[in-house]
Amino acid sequence: MAFLSLIIVLLLVQWWGSGKPLQRDQWFYQLWLVIERSADRLPFKRYTPIVLALGLPVALLLALQIGLYRADGWFWLLLLNVLVLLFSLGRGDFSASIGRYLEAAQADDSVRAAQVLDENNLDPQLRQERTSSSWMDLHNEALRVFGYRGFERMFAVIFWFMVCGAAGALGYRLVVLAWSRWLAVNDARSACLGRVLLWLEWPAARLMGVAWALVGNFEVCMQPWRENCFKAVPTQRFLSSIIRGALGDDQACGSNTLSATAATRIEPAYSLSLVKNLEGMFSRALLFWVVVVAVISLTL
Predict the structure, then answer these.
(1) Cα(92)–Cα(17) distance, rounded to whole angstroms?
(2) Which of 9, 258, 262, 286 has its CA 20 to 30 A from that of 167?
(3) CB of 205 within 8 A of CB of 237?
(4) Which pTM value belongs to this model?
(5) DSSP per residue over 159-222, as a string?
(6) How confident is the prediction for the chain on average, in pLDDT?
(7) Do 157 and 149 meet the contact criterion of CB atoms below 8 Å apart?
């Protein structure tokens, strides 16, 4: 059933371009607000509201799934999986965002390119680290921004769906929504939730790296993967070095030897080519994940 749910969701995403028709987040923010208004009557009121706002929907979904399972409601379980998965996918149209960035780059409009990156950025350190608007710096930032957004949009959701079912996918998306909301208002508690998100993404990001290595440049990709695998490196930074290696950029592994490719590379055209190839890498990795899920489903 998990594999069938995933295939249906992927077909619907191809049709819609994203899961937007079912991605309505206001109910979650309203629930969170109601709980916060009652925080004075709750213990540990600094974090209790967000814990309840995250835990209650997941608990209700689990209860509903158990009820449907006991009633042999397989069709309704399938429908529930599809609906929750569509809701849990990342917000926005990933392909359209990359397309807008590439259009800005081709028009030599660095202001518009930086705006696209800011709209898609979920890394609070990136804007602080941007020291110039040179195209090379923007393309490097684009690899980090789009590399992470492509991962959190679909691959992390699929991972937790396969591990914990629809409740796992929903829980991951709600944590991302809460973290994004706290980042938007510069709430100090976002750092704590960011650490929770880091550990939620840790196993999925490492599997993502293996998938990229298998569908890209294996040797160059695996060197930074091995160096950072067991370090508490922020997911955005980890994925950035991995995907550069998968795309064939041997500088991602810190090599001091200048390869023939590196010797002839011309910047910023080379960095832009990496951004152009990013979406193709995600497509190949998604196909790989679908095959793996199919094999697991057939063997269980």
Answers:
(1) 9
(2) 286
(3) no
(4) 0.90
(5) HHHHHHTHHHHHHHHHHHHHHHHHHHTT-TTHHHHHHHHHHHHHHHHHHHHHHHHHHS-HHHHH
(6) 86
(7) no
Q: What would you measure as the largest C-alpha separation in the chain, in angstroms?
A: 66
Q: How far apart are CA 210 and CA 216, in angstroms?
A: 10
Q: What mean pLDDT do residues 234-263 have?
A: 71
> Helices in 229-277 by DSSP H: which ranges?
235-246, 260-264, 269-276
CB 250 within 8 A of CB 224: no
pLDDT of residue 37: 83
CB 280: neighbour CB atoms within 10 A?
12
Instruction: List, for residues 106-141, the tens digit of each pLDDT value.
Output: 998 988 998 999 888 887 666 555 556 788 889 989
The tokens describing 144, both together, are 């980090």
Say yes or no to pLDDT of 205 above 60.
yes
Distance, CA of 48 to CA of 171 (rounded, Å): 16
pLDDT tens readout for residues 265-283: 787 888 899 999 999 999 9
Cβ 53 vs Cβ 35: under 8 Å = yes
